[in-house]
């Protein structure tokens, strides 16, 4: 759109320069130029800005009957005679075109994201809380990260109605979607529960599901095709068994990018086709983004009129960098109880967001003496290793994504060395 407007401007500039010579001749005849051979603009003999001319007496525009004007136009320019009605229509069309061109020109630049800096009145706010359940490694975090975007939602809680772990917040236009990890259903980071456990967890989860507007049941379809897991199948079946409109559920077949024969996906879809509890089925790759747009649109459509729960602030990269420094420094202070932490310089040397959404962070500690370096590094690197592991874990949980933390300890170069 902007390109076309630019083209339009260029055309009009070209047109006016084209017209110029046509008018310059008669105008020169009447100009009040003093006689001079010099036409040089750097040394003008006459500049109209130096003179104030009396404004011409206002004359009413001579009015011509539209009928006679049309006839005169036809005689002079060969233009087809138009009725006043046709003229009116043409004027309207031209106005519409001009307006749409103006609107196109005024469109916000592409790099200003929709909804950014937009204040949405509370009465216009739409919300959706979505619980996500899946076995470990099903891809809950990757999917949330993809939808929430590269910016991490820095949530300052307004309400505290739930103690569930928040995975991320997506705010677009007037709609906010909060993604929660489901406790009780959290089969957790510690491995799969026993088969009997699944039933107990699902049963108890029904009570907590009421807290969400929708439950996203996610499973690794590639894994399902290669190593079927009875517990995962049981979970999917139990949650989709009954249709309960107030407990809306959807089933997401994740990691479709890993499935080479796409016909296999249809087989899996058929396998769970008989479950009336699921409102919709989605085939997605939460990591790569395939199918996520459809899922996102579906979720946006489910949002209800309700004030947002979270302030839609986003953690900028700058804030994330500072957090990374603070977390590492805190861990260092935990492990080094002597004076030296205060004389150690601590710098962020590298920050890179990798294609899989993880962040590579490189930080350097610069000590004054070799002995200080030795204390910080510890025996065979044990101390700095401990600091790194703990800080990495903490950063991973704050940023809700993988973090590759690299710490280096070096001795400051002596001046003049
Ligand atoms: N190829 C592929 N890999 C994926 C996809 N989604 C997630 N993964 C990978 O699967 C692994 C687990 O993903 P997570 O998003 O951490 O899974 P999770 O369900 O949050 O795992 P827990 O935190 O253990 O419950 C990671 O190595 C991801 O990179 C996907 O759509 N395609």
TrEMBL record:
Pfam families recorded: KH_2 (PF07650), MMR_HSR1 (PF01926)
Q: Where is this region: G1?
A: 134-141
Write down the InterPro entries for this protein, in alphabetical order.
G_ERA_dom, GTP-bd, GTPase_Era-like, KH_dom-like_a/b, KH_dom_type_2, KH_sf_prok-type, P-loop_NTPase, Small_GTP-bd
Q: For the region G4, what residue ranges are annotated?
A: 254-257
Q: Where is this region: Disordered?
A: 34-66
A Gene Ontology BP annotation from the UniProt entry: ribosomal small subunit assembly
Protein name stated in the entry = GTP-binding protein ERG
Q: Which organism is it from?
A: Rhynchospora pubera
């Amino acid at each position: 759109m902007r390109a076309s407007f630019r083209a339009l401007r260029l055309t009009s500039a070209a047109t006016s320069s084209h017209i110029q010579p046509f008018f310059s001749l008669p105008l020169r005849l009447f100009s009040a130029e003093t006689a001079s051979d010099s036409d040089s603009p750097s040394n003008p003999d006459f500049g109209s800005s130096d003179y104030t001319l009396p404004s011409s007496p206002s004359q009413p525009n001579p009015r011509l009957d539209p009928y006679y004007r049309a006839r005169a136009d036809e005689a002079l320019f060969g233009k087809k005679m138009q009725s006043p009605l046709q003229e009116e229509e043409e004027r309207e069309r031209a106005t519409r075109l001009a307006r749409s061109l103006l609107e196109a020109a005024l469109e916000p630049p592409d790099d200003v994201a929709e909804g950014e800096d937009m204040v949405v009145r509370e009465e216009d706010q739409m919300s959706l809380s979505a619980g996500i359940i899946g076995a470990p490694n099903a891809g809950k975090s990757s999917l949330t990260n993809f939808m929430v975007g590269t910016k991490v939602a820095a949530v300052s809680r307004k309400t505290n109605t739930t103690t569930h772990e928040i995975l991320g917040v997506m705010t677009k236009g007037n709609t906010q979607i909060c993604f929660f990890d489901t406790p009780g259903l959290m089969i957790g980071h510690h491995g799969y529960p026993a088969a009997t456990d699944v039933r107990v967890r699902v049963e108890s989860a029904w009570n907590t599901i009421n807290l969400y507007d929708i439950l996203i049941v996610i499973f690794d379809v590639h894994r399902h095709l290669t190593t079927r897991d009875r517990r995962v199948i049981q979970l999917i079946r139990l949650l989709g068994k009954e249709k309960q409109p107030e407990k809306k559920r959807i089933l997401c077949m994740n990691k479709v990018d890993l499935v080479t024969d796409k016909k296999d996906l249809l087989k899996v879809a058929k396998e769970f086709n008989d479950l009336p509890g699921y409102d919709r089925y989605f085939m997605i790759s939460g990591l790569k983004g395939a199918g996520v747009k459809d899922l996102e649109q579906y979720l946006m459509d489910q949002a209800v009129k309700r004030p947002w729960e979270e302030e839609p602030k986003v953690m900028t990269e700058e804030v994330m960098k500072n957090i990374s420094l603070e977390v590492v420094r805190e861990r260092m202070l935990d492990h080094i109880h002597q004076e030296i932490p205060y004389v150690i310089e601590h710098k962020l040397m590298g920050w890179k967001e990798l294609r899989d959404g993880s962040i590579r962070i490189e930080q350097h500690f610069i000590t004054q003496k070799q002995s200080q370096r030795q204390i910080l590094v510890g025996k065979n690197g044990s101390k700095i290793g401990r600091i790194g592991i703990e800080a990495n874990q903490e950063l991973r949980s704050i940023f809700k994504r993988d973090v590759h933390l690299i710490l280096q300890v070096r001795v400051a170069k002596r001046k003049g060395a």
